[in-house]
Amino acid sequence: FYSLKPFAHVEAGLRTPTIDSPFPEEFNRRAVALFAAMHFPPTELSAQNLLREGVEQNRIFVTGNTSIDAIKLLASNLVVSTDSKMILVTTHRRENWGEPQREICRAIGRILEIDNELTLVLPMHRNPVVREVLQEELGSHPRVSLIDPPEYPDFVELMARSFMILTDSGGIQEEAPALGKPVLVLRTETERPEGVSAGNALLVGTDADAIYEAARGLITDHNAYAEIAQARNPYGDGLASKRIVAKIRQNLGLEFEELESFGE
Predict the structure, then answer these.
(1) Which tens digits make up the pLDDT trace of 95-151?
(2) Angle at which helices 99-112 and 128-138 pack, to 10 degrees?
């Protein structure tokens, strides 16, 4: 902005009701919307958020999310089968530090009691505030693997192998449905409500009882699991990057490939 350089915002228009959750992403997203020259929202819902804030229609182009491009590319080379007993968990959000994260850990312990063959893999964020709680609460559990964050291709393989995913990550809420994996969102609100509306995700918060009941329902009710596991991803079709490049080239007066916006 200070250098007067045109700025294009990828993943534009994601919003929650409160400016400090998620922190600091929600503030950053609202702030950059004030001066972006081009807005590339992943979904029509995100585009509507921008329009309500006064962004001109001609600066908005719905692309789908680039994370779906990446995961489709990687998943196409994977040959893995679902491990019906492995649950994948990620938790690192600042809002969940401290007691909320301990509640998540308590829920995990109870979930593993549902079936003695259940196992759980939890890549730990490198922040010591996060690691200390996870190691204290779950480090001695024989069926919990606390691991360092894997490289992205390895993490995609973990997602593909898992039975279901518990997460407070925004990106994983988009990626898991592309693999047909049910998601329990460990947050009280999300800037990605499309997955919840589509039935791919359940917003369960950080209360141990709520997490446990939601997970138990998927573990014990095969029909409920099959319903939420259907791969009907609302976040993209794998062409977001091509759409973004085409619009930037058009904006610069260069030759470009004409592509419809995502969802048309």
Answers:
(1) 999 999 999 999 999 999 999 999 999 999 999 999 999 999 999 999 999 999 999
(2) 30
